[in-house]
Amino acid sequence: MNVPRVGVGVMIVQDGRVLMGRRMSGQRPGWYGWIGGKLEFGETLQECARREAQEEAGVEVGQLRLLCISSIIVEDQHWIDVEFLGDIISGEPHVAAPDELAEWTWYPIDQLPSPIFEPAKLALKSYRSGNLLNE
Asked: What are phi and psi of 57, to 5 degrees?
């Protein structure tokens, strides 16, 4: 049965730089995005964001602020995506899921790599405008 799924992401910005990783599996292998993944049954959006931060980058995130909500249809999948802006409160980013990610790198916000995963593109638009984006 085809039903929309829920994805959750965390954009982390420090000193004008954004933490981005190159995905190796899942949707859009080889594309760049940030911490994120699928919401699990019984999990809050914030719990999902924190779990994904630990699983993918080995960091603890805090001060999660809603950045944008979007509806994205990619290939044969429909995602309701919730993006947060967060801060690292402990740990140093490292590849904690080598089967999913090739690297974590800090990029200047005006010199981001490409291609960028669709949810991250929409979240960047929201971040730059300062407005909640709902597309």
From this structure: -125, 0
Backbone φ and ψ of 81, nearest 5°: -115, 130
Superfamily for domain range 5-134: Nucleoside Triphosphate Pyrophosphohydrolase (3.90.79.10)
Q: Is the pLDDT of residue 83 over 70?
A: yes
In the structure, how many helices (H) and strands (E) does the chain have?
Answer: 2, 8
| Higher pLDDT among residues 75 and 116, named by residue | 116
Tell me if residue 28 falls in helix, strand or coil. coil
Token code pair at residue 17: 């730089």
Contacts of 47 (CB under 8 A, 6+ apart): none
CA 114 from centre of chain: 15
Where do the domains of the chain lie?
5-134
> Distance between CA atoms of 1 and 36, rounded to whole angstroms?
24
